[in-house]
Specification:
With 379 residues, this protein is an alpha+beta fold. It has eleven helices and eleven strands. The chain has a nine-stranded antiparallel beta sheet, sandwiched between helices. It has a two-stranded antiparallel sheet with strand order 4-5. Helix 3 packs antiparallel against helix 11 and helix 4 runs parallel beside helix 7.
C-alpha cells in the first residue's frame, strides 16, 4: 500500500466534484427518468470493457446503490487469467485500506456498548508490558488519536519485513508489541493528519484484546452477519477462498502475486469481499438513523478546510454550488484495489474493485465512472 491510496482517492473525488457544477432545474424528473430507463447499464458495461482493453486490467467489478437499493452489480475480465475463469459480481477481492471503514464501524459498535472508550489511553487495552511512545510534550495516545490518523505513529513499523511492491506475508502481535515499545512518534499527538496503516493494526489489536475475540469474529458479529454479507471475511477462509480472484502485480498485470497475510495488522487492510456485499454495507452506511453510522460519521479530526475524518472514513463537504457531502475510502495492495464512494444526501453509492490496479489506469476509470454515475443519478 505504498501509493498512499486515500490521498489519491481524495484527489480524484475533489477533481470530480469540482467539475460537476450542475443546474438545479428539472433535477428530480431527470433522475427519476434515468432510474426508470437505465436498467441495462449498457453504457457502464462498455466503459468497463473498454478499460480492460486500454489498461490491461485482469478484471474489474462494480456495485451501485441508489435510494436504499442495489441497482447494479457486474464484473468484466478474468478472475484468473491462466485458467480462463471469468469475473462475476460474486468474485471476491481483497479490499485493502477500505478495510479501515469496517474497522471504524466495529469500533463504533464497541464504543456504543461501552466496551471501548474513544478518549481512553490506548495502552488501557494492551498488556502492561507494552510501552507506548508519548510525544515531546509527554502526551499519550488515545483511541481517537489512532482512529483519526493523528497519532504520529509511522505508516508502517520499522520491524516489518516486507519489500515494497511485494505482498505482506505475516506480522505477529509480538512484533507489534516490540515495535511499540521501541519506536518514537513522527510528530506530536493530535497536531496533524498523517495516514498510518500501523495505527489501524494497533486499533484492531486493541479491539481483539478487550473483547477477547479475533478481528474476523468481530466483523462477523457486528457487520457481516447482520447485513447478510455472506461472501466477506477478515481472513482467507472457506467463505471467500473458492470465489477469490487471482492477484496480479500492479506494474506487471500478467504476473501473479498473492493475497496479503497481515496477521496483527489485518484491521488496516485485510478484508476479503465482493461488490454485492459492499453494496449491502453502503445501504446501511447511508442510513444515518443508525446509531453506529451516526457515530462513525462524526467529524472527529479536521484534515483541511473541507475534509474531515470520522472513524475509518474520509468526509468532504463541498458548499455552493454543489452542496454535496461525499464520503469515501479506497485501498491499494499493489495488486488488489478498491474504492467506495457515498453521497448520502443524493442517496447514491458505488464500489469498485480490481485484482490488478494497473497504476493510474484504475484511478482514471474510477473517476470516469463516478462522474457519469453522478450525472445520471445525483444531479
Amino acid at each position: 500500500m505504498n501509493k498512499n491510496p486515500p490521498l489519491i482517492i481524495m484527489c480524484f473525488a475533489a477533481v470530480f466534484i469540482l467539475s460537476c457544477v450542475i443546474s438545479n432545474s428539472s433535477k428530480t424528473s431527470e433522475v427519476k427518468k434515468n432510474v426508470e430507463s437505465d436498467t441495462s447499464f449498457k453504457w457502464l458495461k462498455k466503459m468497463m470493457q473498454d478499460s480492460i482493453t486500454k489498461y490491461n486490467f485482469p478484471s474489474f467489478a462494480i456495485g451501485v446503490v441508489y435510494d436504499g437499493k442495489i441497482i447494479y452489480t457486474d464484473a468484466v475480465g478474468w478472475a484468473d487469467r491462466a485458467k480462463k475463469i471469468p469475473a462475476t459480481a460474486e468474485s471476491v477481492y481483497q479490499i485493502g485500506s477500505l478495510t479501515k471503514t469496517f474497522t471504524g464501524n466495529v469500533l463504533a459498535h464497541l464504543i456504543l456498548n461501552r466496551t471501548i472508550n474513544l478518549d481512553a489511553d490506548i495502552s488501557t487495552y494492551f498488556p502492561a508490558t507494552v510501552h507506548f511512545p508519548a510525544d515531546s510534550n509527554g502526551k499519550k495516545l488515545t483511541v481517537k488519536d489512532i482512529a483519526t490518523h493523528s497519532s504520529g505513529l509511522p505508516r508502517y513499523p520499522g520491524n516489518l519485513d516486507r519489500v515494497d511492491g511485494e505482498p505482506m506475508m505475516g506480522y505477529t502481535k509480538e512484533q507489534m508489541y516490540e515495535a511499540l515499545s521501541t519506536m518514537r512518534l513522527e510528530r506530536n499527538v493530535g497536531v496533524a493528519y498523517s495516514y498510518s496503516n500501523f495505527g489501524y493494526g494497533v486499533l484492531g489489536t486493541a479491539m481483539e484484546n478487550v473483547t477477547k475475540q479475533p478481528y474476523a469474529q468481530l466483523l462477523e458479529k457486528y457487520i457481516f452477519k447482520p447485513l447478510s454479507m455472506n461472501s466477506s471475511s477478515g481472513e482467507l477462509d472457506s467463505k471467500v477462498k473458492n470465489k477469490l480472484t487471482t492477484a496480479y502485480y500492479d506494474d506487471r498485470p500478467n504476473e501473479e502475486s498473492k493475497p496479503w497475510q497481515m496477521g496483527a495488522l489485518v484491521a488496516h487492510g485485510g478484508i476479503f469481499s465482493n461488490v454485492k456485499d459492499i453494496s449491502r454495507f453502503m445501504i446501511h452506511f447511508m442510513d444515518t438513523a443508525q446509531a453506529d453510522i451516526k457515530l462513525q460519521q462524526t467529524p472527529f479530526f479536521r484534515i483541511s478546510r473541507i475534509t474531515t475524518y470520522g472513524l475509518g472514513i474520509f468526509m468532504t463537504n463541498y458548499g455552493a454550488p454543489q452542496n454535496t457531502m461525499v464520503m469515501y475510502h479506497g485501498g491499494d495492495l499493489d495488486s488488489y484495489a478498491s474504492n467506495m464512494i457515498c453521497y448520502p444526501q443524493k442517496k447514491l453509492g458505488m464500489v469498485m474493485m480490481s485484482n490488478g490496479a494497473a497504476g493510474r489506469g484504475l484511478g482514471n476509470l474510477f473517476t470516469a465512472i463516478e462522474n457519469e454515475l453522478y450525472k445520471r443519478y445525483a444531479k
